[in-house]
Specification:
The protein is of the alpha+beta class and about 160 residues long. Helix content is about 35%, strand content about 35%. It has one helix spanning about 1-55; strands spanning about 65-70, 75-85, 95-105, 115-130, 130-145. It has a 5-stranded antiparallel sheet. Strand 2 (about 75-85) and strand 3 form a beta hairpin. It is rod-shaped and about 105 Å long. About 15% of the residues are buried. Keywords: Signal.
């Protein structure tokens, strides 16, 4: 009687072990997939930040529709709001201002859909008796991305 009981018990235990190992393997594959997706998104964020710095390094005010390329990354300026200059002057005739820009990465094989990011810009310019001087970029702050398309320019 004991021999007839052990065979179904061992078969059930074996099946339980197989199912648990398959479940663990599926969980590991899912975690790996999520890590890879996160890495691709972080790489896209880095590319967008590089594109923003590249675009804003030029002394001219950016124009909506302007395109550029940093290495293998192609981008376009989707929206630009500003600059909005403060009324008060700092020491040395410096005036501070703000602007917002939204950039879009062109799709690639690695990132098949276009990603957008909005950036807040801190600017300064010198005011002289002849008028305002050229603007200087002081800081770039990311306002949003995380794989979602933004609607226009962020506040």
């Amino acid at each position: 009687m004991a021999a007839g009981f052990l065979l179904p018990l061992s078969a059930t235990a074996s099946l339980l072990l197989v199912l648990s190992s398959v479940s663990l393997q599926a969980a590991a594959l899912q975690a790996r997939s999520q890590v890879q997706t996160g890495q691709r998104l972080r790489q896209a964020e880095d590319r967008l930040m590089s594109a923003a710095q590249h675009l804003l390094a030029a002394p001219a005010t950016p124009v909506v529709g302007q395109t550029g390329q940093v290495g293998p990354v192609a981008y376009s300026l989707v929206a630009f709001d500003g600059p909005h200059w403060d009324g008060a002057l700092a020491a040395g005739g410096l005036q501070r201002g703000r602007a917002a820009a939204t950039l879009e990465l062109e799709p690639t094989a690695e990132q098949p859909r276009a990603l957008r990011a909005a950036y807040g810009l801190e600017l300064s310019r010198t005011l002289t008796p002849e008028g305002p001087g050229s603007q200087q970029l002081l800081a770039v702050r990311e306002l949003g991305l995380r794989g979602r398309t933004s609607n226009g320019v962020a506040p």
